[in-house]
């Protein structure tokens, strides 16, 4: 798994650019982090490759203070949101 950071990407992604034929798909996480093997697309949009540790730190920082809301499982409401990268 490769991890890519993109500060600002607007629009986030097009189906054509993120297609399997182009090396995709890529998955978006909080903090401008993308995962996947689509190096062609990542380089085209100016993504910076990160280590897994760097990528996890980006997500942790982006989710700091975020808690589960009303659509979460009742036992999760008010609990911190935590995402662990694959």
Tell me about this structure.
This protein is an alpha+beta fold and 86 residues long. The protein has one domain (1-86). It has helices spanning 39-44, 52-62, and strands at residues 3-5, 27-29, 33-35, 48-50.
How would you sum up this structure in a few lines?
The chain is α+β, with helices and mostly antiparallel strands and 86 residues long. The chain is built from two helices and four strands; from the N terminus they run βββαβα.
Which strand order spans the largest sheet, edge to edge or round the barrel?
2-3-1-4
Would you count the extended β strands for me? 4
What's the Cα radius of gyration?
Answer: 14 Å
β-strand amount: 5-15%
Mean pLDDT: 83
User: Gap between N and C termini, in Å?
Assistant: 8 Å
Order of helices and strands: EEEHEH
Q: Which structural category fits the helices and strands?
A: alpha+beta
Number of domains: 1
Helix content: 10-25%
Inertia-based shape: elongated
Report low-confidence residues grouped into runs of 5 or more: none
Largest sheet: 4 strands, antiparallel
Summed up, the helix count is: 2
């Amino acid at each position: 798994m490769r991890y890519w950071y993109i500060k600002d990407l607007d629009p986030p992604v097009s189906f054509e650019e993120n297609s399997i034929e182009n090396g995709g798909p890529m998955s978006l996480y909080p903090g401008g982090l993308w995962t996947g093997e689509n190096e062609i697309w990542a380089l085209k949009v100016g993504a910076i490759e990160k280590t897994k540790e760097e990528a996890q730190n980006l997500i942790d920082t982006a989710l700091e203070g975020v808690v589960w809301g009303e659509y979460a499982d009742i036992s999760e409401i008010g609990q911190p949101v935590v995402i662990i990268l694959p």
